[in-house]
Design brief:
heterodimer; A: five-stranded mixed sheet; two-stranded parallel sheet; B: alpha/beta; 6 helices
């Protein structure tokens, strides 16, 4: 069975039920055909392709990432319709570049592809946002910015998501960040207590009033009659 | 017979003006008895301790036996804040706000290792003991504590409530944090409480 085959909706999977692969070797497993398609389509923008534990990793030029991911989503032969993660990796080697990682999954083809892009240290950490391709990138990119300080160009609302807005100690998952933070415990507590919990996350922001026009018709009908949302 | 106490040690000193009258002590007894057996907890569950707390409140351990069957999810109608789980710095102003919204008389139980000391989370994000934010009456150790442990802590709190006196106004003082820093205990004490201990000292890799 070819595990990269197209699976039609409603049809049974090729070769019977999908099974967990066993005895996957570290290197030398067959590459995801999307990698070859990417190389023929984008040429030199695809730096290299690796297959590790049966999973294909494609290293892409930082400038080409947005086009590559857009193509992977839109092309009928790829159809990567699910962005499962955006994250970053910093290595302990101080000279090694920081890698931004996108995990893409194609549900119709049952494929998984890992796209990586390297950002050299010493320059501002900036890369294009894929928010306009996948809405799922919204919070994932915010988390990546919060933890690593990577700025995503074109993100509509790039601010901290896990740490609070006035957090001033830096980016916690960076290797130069001390485990206990940069300030003393009392200073950390002082800064945390000084914030007003209602300043940023107001009830107006949490309410769905702003998004009313985007709600499904059926829900708008219910809410228009004054029915409570259970909020 | 030779073991009896010497006579001078058996004298009882009695200063009538410093004692409370029969009515005051009986009234204290009645009020405390009522309070201790109708504590309404405000569950502030942030982590796995909250699961054990739910088990405590469920039928097997039946917290209602101690007059706590009514969880108060509004701090304005609560007597006991049960902080079950770790508190990150982002939640610090929120738990402080909840504590200030609770009316007197009020008590606080710090449930589990994380709420009491920060536990294994000796890192940049977690408060090293909620007693640096709000005053705590009873600490329940465990990771997480068994329901029996929590019930023991609640019984200890009930003992404390039963021994309070209305004449002693000090127990009802509201905490007044320093207006500039919002801390209610000196910063040096907080730093001391947050000192790393044990093996965790070796886990800082800030030198990289």
């Amino acid at each position: 069975m070819n595990r990269f085959e197209l699976v039609q909706t409603g049809a049974s999977a090729p070769g019977g039920e999908p099974t967990t692969q066993k005895n996957v070797s570290h290197r030398g497993e067959p590459a995801n055909p999307s990698a070859e398609a990417l190389q023929s389509k984008f040429g030199a923008s695809i730096r290299r392709v690796e297959v590790i534990w049966g999973e294909t990793v494609v290293y892409v030029d930082a400038a080409a990432v947005h086009n590559v991911i857009q193509w992977l989503k839109d092309d009928p032969s790829q159809r990567y319709d699910f962005l499962s993660d955006v994250t970053a990796v910093e290595y302990r080697d101080a000279d090694a570049p920081i890698e931004v990682v996108w995990h893409l999954r194609s549900l119709p083809f049952r494929r998984f592809l890992r796209v990586k892009s390297q950002l050299p240290k010493g320059k501002p950490l900036e890369i294009d946002s894929v928010y306009d391709v996948y809405r799922a990138a919204d919070w994932l990119e915010r988390e990546c910015y919060d933890m690593f300080g990577i700025r995503f160009r074109g993100h509509p609302d790039l601010r901290r998501i896990l740490m609070w807005e006035s957090y001033r100690e830096g980016y916690p998952l960076r290797k130069d960040f001390p485990l206990r933070g940069r300030f003393s415990r009392s200073e950390q507590l002082r800064q945390a207590l000084a914030q007003n919990p209602e300043a940023r996350y107001s009830m107006e922001e949490l309410s769905i009033a702003d998004a009313f026009a985007e709600l499904p018709q059926e829900m708008r009908d219910r809410l228009g009659k004054g029915e409570r949302t259970g909020e | 017979m030779g073991l009896s106490t010497p006579a001078e040690h058996r004298t009882v000193s009695y200063a009538p003006e410093s004692q409370e009258g029969w009515v005051a002590t009986r009234l204290d007894f009645l009020v405390n008895w009522a309070r201790a057996n109708s504590l309404w907890p405000m569950p502030f569950g942030t982590a796995c301790c909250a699961i054990e707390f739910m088990a405590t409140a469920a039928s097997d351990f039946d917290l209602a036996r101690f007059g706590m069957e009514r969880m108060s999810f509004s701090p304005r109608q609560a007597d006991v804040l049960i902080c079950a789980g770790r508190v990150p710095f982002k939640l610090a102003p929120i738990i402080r706000r909840i504590w200030q919204q609770m009316p007197q008389p009020k008590w606080c139980i710090s449930m589990g290792a994380c709420a009491s000391t920060g536990g294994m989370f000796d890192n940049y994000a977690v408060v090293q003991g909620i007693d640096t934010i709000i005053p705590v009456d009873v600490y329940v150790p465990g990771c997480p504590p068994r329901p029996e442990g929590l019930i023991y802590g609640i019984r200890m709190l009930q003992e404390k409530v039963k021994n309070e006196r209305a004449a002693d106004k000090g127990t009802r003082d509201e905490i007044e944090p320093d207006p500039t820093s919002q801390l209610y205990i000196p910063p040096s004490v907080i730093d001391e409480l947050g000192e790393p201990f044990g093996n965790s000292v070796n886990q800082t890799r800030s030198g990289l």
